[in-house]
Amino acid sequence: MKxxxxxxxxxxxxxxxxxxxxxxxxxxxxxxxxxxxxxxKSQKEEGGATEISDLSIYNLPDTWTTQNGNQVQWKDFxxxxxxxxxxxxSCKAACPILIADMREIRKTVEASEAPHKEKVKYILxxxxxxxxxxxxxxxxxxxxxxxxxxxxxxxxxxxxTREFAAVLAVNYKQISPVDFSHSNIISVFNTxxxxxxxxxxxxxxxxxxxxxIKEQLEKIK
Length: 221
Hints:
By secondary structure, the chain is of the alpha+beta class. 38% of the residues lie in helices and 19% in strands. It has a 7-stranded mixed sheet, sandwiched between helices.
């Protein structure tokens, strides 16, 4: 429960700070045409727009870069169940185990009878943006056979990465030029971007995470 409270407060506080900055900037801008993101526009056209709660990570305004060089925000993932972990690709200890856990989670979900399995995004957020450039992440994804549409690698600058880690209650610290110590947490978000489950540990039983993913998929109409 502590992690759920921390995430909720993190989203609310970070969004409040960002909104203050955005609102100030807007006062000096000339009104211009608003460009809707694809996900939101599609929902409105289908009559299925979903209100975003204060607890949703879809409120976070920061832009991230994928392994394919695309610019995205968290709200662009609306309608999908998200399985999120923070790693760095040069890690030789914990991260390979976390990645193996993510693979196993996906394999188990795919083997189940859950509906809408294509609606799961397995997202790996880098805590080492200096090394994990989009080009590096793309190469890593290809070499790891994690390069289909359901695998998403994200990176941003150090400040935004640190802010997002705080939202997830993930702690990390650089302990050498090439190594980090970090929390080993896998988080599941529902289609509204709200935290559904978190589990910490390496190489442990992930059946509760899989069950939560399946339950969220069952709710998709």
